[in-house]
Amino acid sequence: MPALTRGRAAALVEDAAMDGTVKPMQTRSRVVIEPKEVDALLAAVGTTLEGLDEATQAWCDRSTAERFLRADKGDLSKATKRLRTTLKWRGTYRPDLNARCPKCFGRDLRSHYMQQVGFDVNGRALVYSDIGLAMDSKASSNVEHCVQVLELMEKFLPAYPYDQYIWVCDFHKFSAGNMNPSVAYKCLSLFARSYPERLEMMIFVEAPKMFNSLYKMLTSFVDPVTVQKLRFVKGPEGKGGGADLRTVCGEHFDDETTQWLITEMRMHRNMWPVVKANKSWLGSMIRGNGKLAHAAHVAEFANHDNRGTPEFIASEAGKYAEEFARTHAKTFDLASKELPNLCSSIDALNLCEDTDLVFDRFE
Q1: Does CATH place domain 107-329 in 3.40.525.10?
Q2: pLDDT, tens digit, 9 for 90 and up, residues 61-116
Q3: Parallel, antiparallel, or unpaired: how do β-strands 114-119 and 125-130 relate?
Q4: Tens-place pLDDT, residues 115-143
Q5: CA pair distance 362, 190, nearest whole angstrom
Q6: Using H for helix, E for strand and C for coil, what is the string for 185-238?
Q7: Torsion sign across C-alpha atoms 197, 205, 130, 128
């Protein structure tokens, strides 16, 4: 992946890499992968690579092979199976070219509210999603949108061990209609199969009691180490269970990013009818302006840019996301192809044979 400038976050990482002050998070796998193991995996998938397009072949470089091995704790057989499956999918669907959400681009710009909005203090990507703002709750289309989000980030993630993201998921307005376990299951199978070693932490904000049953089901097949990556925090106004939101954000984000997240969440709670009817991250990217006109009279929200933090908007990742949105908006239609059957079941991947792989592949 190209090493691209990331502004203040990138400078922080570069400086800290020299003096050792920035460390990977405690949950990051520290399995040492030897060069000969990488060679063995690349050789094992060599036949699969033959005949695939140049971009897919280039994607399968040494860092990718090392990442897949790390996710499988050095197990060559398991890593080979997963990488082969991913290569076949990437070669067929070409997510590097076709990763756009057909519902967002072809039906309603507000279909989903899930996107990168910033960086953590180590330069890792920050993803923010608001379940209540998503107009579409179907599992298949949520998977398609996930592919879009993940592929946009893939191009700009720092090198190991900072090549991950933190996902902040706001449960404001979460309802019984969002309790479909298929959404989580299919997204987990996608992340597990094709984007291993990426998730560093998922922060659940103001999750309601009704979410408990779904959470218990998910944790029944998730490795205990990975469960440690899931953190519950209270909402911006102190509602819900878990740790204090600002405290947790302060552990991972700078003041500007923490304030952006809290302002975003408070706007959704205090201006819900207006936000629900008018707010769209994708629409804001297309327009090049994320300030909600309807909030101009509210001092706290008047200058809030829902595209993301100033650092993100000015970064190469932010500029690329804006270009991506505008490019695909030019061909806005309902004719986008559905993704092929990319969501292999967890059983098909034999992940249940070794439960410590289920969420490790979601990392």
Answers
A1: yes
A2: 999 999 999 989 999 999 999 999 999 999 988 988 878 888 888 888 899 999 99
A3: antiparallel
A4: 999 999 999 999 999 999 998 888 788 88
A5: 8
A6: HHHHHHHHHHCCCCEEEEEEECCCCCHHHHHHHHHCCCCHHHHCCEEEECCCCC
A7: negative
